[in-house]
Design brief:
By secondary structure, the protein is of the alpha+beta class. The chain has helices spanning 15-24, 31-42, 113-118, 124-130, 140-151, 184-200, 206-218, 227-235, 281-302, 319-326, 336-343, 361-387, 395-419, 425-437, 465-482; strands spanning 52-63, 73-90, 94-101, 104-105, 109-112, 167-174, 243-248, 253-259, 264-270, 334-335, 358-359, 443-448, 456-462, 487-490. It has three domains: 31-260, 2-Layer Sandwich (Ribosomal Protein S5, domain 2); 272-276 and 388-485, 2-Layer Sandwich (Alpha-Beta Plaits), CATH 3.30.70; 281-362, no CATH class. The protein contains 15 helices and 14 strands. A hairpin with a 2-residue loop joins strand 3 (94-101) and strand 4. Helix 14 (425-437) packs antiparallel against helix 15.
Length: 501
Amino acid sequence: MVKGSRKYLPLAWSSAGHRLLLTFMKMDGSLTDRLMLQMKSVSGGFNPNETTLCTAPARIDVLGGLSLEAGGVVAQMALPSRAGVALLWRDDGKIIFMGQHHGQNHQPVILQGAAVFSSRNRSSDHAVATADDSPAAWTAPLLNVFQSLINMGITLSPKPRGRGSMGATVVVDSDIRAGSGQAASTAMTAALLQAVSVSCGLSLTAIQKAGIISDAQRASDGNHGHVVDALTVLSAQDGPPAHLLRYSAQPHSLLGQIPLSRDIRILALDTGVTRATNRDIFGEFHLTGAMGAKIIETIYRDLGQRHNPVHGYLGNVSPELYRRYFRSMLPRRVRGADFLRTYGAIDSTAGEIIPNNMYAIRTTLDHLINEYEHAEHFLQAMEELSESPADAPLAAQRRLIMQRAGRLLLASHHSYRLRLQLSCPQADWLVDQFSTAGPKAGAYGARMTDCGGGGTVAVLLDTSNQAMDALLSIMSRYKHEMGTEVMVREAGTTGSAGALI
């Protein structure tokens, strides 16, 4: 295969074809070479020993997704697609950003470093970079990394460095398609933060770095970084075996990494459709979920219950208790003004309730509660498969566990598709095709990931030849039906290590 080629394999049924497909699903190892070549082209007198180069992986929201906004359980994995940053400190007071993203060149941006490195206030240059319609908008999360560190009182003192004014050249490159729902911006921001940390000798914990990355993205127009996403691109273990990361979003902690059984794999299929960007879906769910939690807390108080198990997180509400008692008490839709008058204000960190807006309380909570339950049971199934040997006498029992896990993925997708209307035709087509192929072909389930509206589909397959045949067939027909190619990556394989590993 030609390096960097995006051409897809023709339909093939041999084991050799399967091996070629698996090779195609791995990361293109030329990322670091491209970064160094770009840095050499922009920096006169370039010294590679003074350049810090760091990379970070993409991630896939296997299951849980929007339940991040309810304090639920979340399952994520890293992908062998990566974003990288080459950092070279300067002494001429300039910050130069350049590079490319998934083959598309960024317009170079040159800013004055003094305002960024020495001020707590957003400079005019910084404001220009964060403007959504500015050619420099792509640099906003990167600038926010520098600004966040300065605002934390951290002195950036790279060594060796000249005696002039502090500046930097930042070259970025990424194999992760923007808008794919694979945390492209998170990976790029994490790579820069790690490069700054290494070159300046900063002692920051993984959770501190994840907070900086999340804040840097949230401060940028059109971005919604989450601490959990940042923890994945920082901390994921490299495969084999592939590892499934288990999180609690109360507020954010990595509970462990489950090694996947050797007879299953989870794939990320990029539909080529840019995920929804015209709505802050995570913000909407965070706000509406907080409103639902407020209603349930009020019900507990009105019933005279001293113990309130919610504690601000819907994830603490038993799904059975929710369906049996609370669901019927929730309004399907409520106007913001009516909610405020009946239940009062909510914590300002959840967002602002607009008096004239309508909020779909019950629909949102139905999805959040169910998604939390789906993720919990899916993780339990993955643990069962990991802890039991894949021996022939247990094959039938293992297939039943895989089928159970696959049904949980499908249930999540149907909620996106029917309850929330957050799917897209391309994702629906892929999910339907894998559902039709079914367990007899080694295909157990699939779902839309992230915030929906486009992006990536997660697929659970076994490692049989039949499963690879089904995948090859669906990939071939996808281009004919949808007019575009589907990009495939196997989660947790070699090249998926987090930036800290």
